[in-house]
Amino acid sequence: MSQALIIVGAGHAGGRAALTLREEGYTGRLILIGDEAHLPYERPSLSKGVLQGSTDLAGCSLCDNARLAALGIEHIAGNPVSRLDTQQHRLQLADGQWLTYTGLLLATGGRARRLPEAQAPVLYLRTHDEALALRDRLRSGTRVVVIGGGFIGLEVAATARGLGCEVTLLEAGPRLAGRVLPAPISAALLALHREQGVDVRLNVAVECIHADAVQLVDGQRLPCDLVVAGIGMQPNIELAAAAGLEVGQGIRVDAQLRTSAADIYAAGDVCEFRLAGVYQRQETWRNAEAQGRHAALNLLGRALPFETLPGFWSDQYDWGLQTVGVMTARTVSRALPGAGLLLFYLDADARLQGACGWAPGNAAARDIKLCERLIAAGTVLNPGSLADADVSLKPLLRG
């Protein structure tokens, strides 16, 4: 079998890497291997448009079969990699076939974490097929219990309410999305969901899930027709770990997204890279897009450090949340029109490190874009000007 560049994982990051390799002029054999039967697609629409029935798979796919064929990208679907031999630079597929690579990208993503206490069917949302299974159950009047107050759980709750479901959302912690959001934004999310009719319960623990109810540890029984769990993602690191690559909470990489094996890179949800000196993963559209492109360039020998700012967004009913950069202890807040909020995160020298915007629609988008430019500029800022809603952010770029 001829040698090739191989991408294991045909999701967003893997698909973007394959397309980038061709865009950058790579003409050799290129193989894209995915566990799912589908073409590479983006995941944000799964909890919104796909569940609502307003978006189909083609609407969130990165390309179609015709484009893959035109680009000469071999897409192997439904025949996952079962073994990786880093010494021989080869991998084995589930059907026993061996493929040899000159360079390899692991973009294996992850799967939804499962609830251990379930004694009845529970639905999850990670893949397109899971989204379709959930969509078929969301009917007006359906009593839905959503377990998990992170972004997947919150977006499912919002979509279900929009479809007329009765929704109860359970969160084990003291606030919504507490691991990734500041307290003021968590409070605003809580207020919005309750205004929209979601029965949000914080600091609760599930004891058991029955066919017709969720039993809480405190003895409460919540009758329901459907249970959806959004309790995080389990990164698919097993293939890398079995091959002897360094792993932590993901596949660990250096500044160039290279794993502990020199000719193997990692990207997307499974990639654990250093940000501000700390290993972490970023389960976001922005990260999958940026790392997919970046890993492709480095597979071609560019040796570029990955320095893209983290960021994400989430749509909640008619409100939008956007973030960029990293959170710090020094915070300045600015009121936005329509009861929105913009938070600035500064370092000790008053240089912007991150920002978080919460506003109706996409009203915060322009401010977040300006904040990204302010972070890149490294300008020393006046906290009083940042807090003053009458002071435009754009002139602050000039110092």
From TrEMBL:
Reported cofactor(s): FAD
Pfam families: Pyr_redox_2, Reductase_C
UniProt keyword list: FAD, Flavoprotein, Oxidoreductase
Annotated ranges, domain Reductase C-terminal: 312-397
Recorded superkingdom: Bacteria
Alphabetical list of InterPro entries matching this protein: FAD-oxidoreductase/Apoptosis (IPR050446), FAD/NAD-bd_sf (IPR036188), FAD/NAD-binding_dom (IPR023753), FAD/NAD-linked_Rdtase_dimer_sf (IPR016156), Reductase_C (IPR028202)
Record domain FAD/NAD(P)-binding: where: 5-292
Protein name from the UniProt record: FAD-dependent oxidoreductase
Organism: Pseudomonas khavaziana
Taxonomic classification: Bacteria, Pseudomonadati, Pseudomonadota, Gammaproteobacteria, Pseudomonadales
